[in-house]
Amino acid sequence: MRMRECRIWDRERECMDREALRALQGERLCQTVKRVYDNVPMYRKRMQEKGILPDDIQSVEDIRYLPFTDKPDLRDEFPYGLFAAPKHDIVRIQGSSGTTGMPIVVGYTQNDVDVWTEMAARSLTMAGCGVDDIVQVCYGYGLFTGGLGMHQGASRIGSMVIPMSSGNTSRQIDILRSLGTTVLCCTPSYGLLIAETILEKGIDPKTLKLKAGTFGAEPWSEKIRERIETLLDIDALDIYGLTEMGGPGVSCECLFKQGMHVNEDHVIPEIIDPETEEPLPYGEKGELVFSTITKEGTPLLRYRTHDLCRLTDAQCECGRTTVRMDRIMGRTDDMLVIRGVNVFPSQIENILMSIPGATPHFLLTVDRVGPTDTMEIQVEVTNEIFGDTVASLQNFSKVIKERVKSTLGLSAVIKLVPPKSIPRFEGKARRVTDLRKL
Ligand code: DLL
């Protein structure tokens, strides 16, 4: 840590006595269970199938009796099936990729937006952010929660916000220099690209005002942290979140960098064995599961994130009492995070199936060139397409490229390959090669 004051946004909540916190969680969990039982047919049915009534849930320990929720549930109930508040109380929709082409969406009441804003404000405060800071938000603004989430959090603190959104690195750097940005918010790979471009441009980082960055939305490593911190002379902190839980700020690192503090007064984290679904004790690696306990719009019980992680309740030196989570160690499913965008191989299959002449046989190679993720898709095409002129083939790959771009928001190199050239799999198809070394 660069000898800076360790600020806390909401001392009363973030440093709460753990017994009192457990009691508060229990109370809020009971309210949430009642809310979903009364308002969400899927939860009522699942609880009835398990033979549980809302009154059977009395404390946070009883969470283990509740049913799980998973991404396909959000897709099956798309768009409004899981809403637990009347539509006229919903003031915001955010969303992300589902496992097929269909996005998942969650609804926020004004209170949900406020809670999410508080969580982001807490996170930025962990990075030392205050009213005098200038926060450059280079996450995308839109259905993705990164841009708006960090924007709202910084505004709540009273910092000066620069809503840059992602892309156009040269312009990002011009703004960062000329406006004197002190806190950067983006994916770690974009943070690294900005840092390396600053160096390439011959700018001395010491002449910049930057002091910290909160980087998240994709996995990264201590090596990348060290590189960003060294190149920019800042504190680089990990921030975690997911659309289904509200967005960025579900947890974030403080300046001690010993894991991300989970905002346990709003979500209850659990680690389960992904196979047996049994809860695991603190310290053991397993799948991270969250229950929302203050959400009104789309409350979710025991949501399986498919992120592999570990929790600890050891006291942190910063004074916060909340449970901390390790860096995300991998996934239990095939979801990839490419340039901060969640990508399921099944989405690519769906795209290809929708283009006559393309087949569902493809191989996806993800790599990292410098700090930037690259994506190449080899697509097997039919005889008719493959026998066509070079110009037609170029045109055909352009169609696929554009469809990938418009569906995933990502550019890919498309390589067309002859019929039957891509291996067929008898077991689980292995369509993805991830060459990135984090
Ligand atoms: O990525 C929200 C976010 C925005 C978090 C900005 C942090 C900063 P989704 O698009 O729904 O939401 O993706 C959620 O991204 O389940 C993880 O697999 C991955 N992820 C998010 N943060 C981290 C992180 C946003 N710090 C999915 N480390 C999650 C590793 C992360 N993976």
**Terminal Cα span:** 22 Å
| Total of helices | 12
How many individual β-strands?
Answer: 21
Bound molecules: 5'-O-[hydroxy(phenylacetyl)phosphoryl]adenosine
For this structure, the quaternary state is: single chain
Radius of gyration: 23 Å
Question: pLDDT average, as an integer?
Answer: 94
Helix content: 25-40%
The assigned structural class equals alpha/beta
Low-confidence stretches: none
Q: Please list the strands of the largest sheet in the order they lie side by side.
A: 4-3-5-6-7-8-9-14-13
What summary fits the major beta sheet? 9 strands, mixed
Strand content: 25-35%
What is the general shape? Answer: globular
Concise summary:
The protein has 438 residues and is α/β, with parallel strands linked by helices.
Protein architecture, described:
This protein is α/β, with parallel strands linked by helices and 438 residues long. The two termini are 22 Å apart. The strands form five sheets. Strands 4-3-5-6-7-8-9-14-13 form a nine-stranded mixed sheet. 32% of the residues lie in helices and 26% in strands. The radius of gyration is 23 Å and the shape is globular. The protein has twelve helices and 21 strands. The structure holds 5'-O-[hydroxy(phenylacetyl)phosphoryl]adenosine. Residues 96, 139, 144-146, 216-219, 238-243, 247-248, 305, 307, 328, 337, 342 line the site of 5'-O-[hydroxy(phenylacetyl)phosphoryl]adenosine.
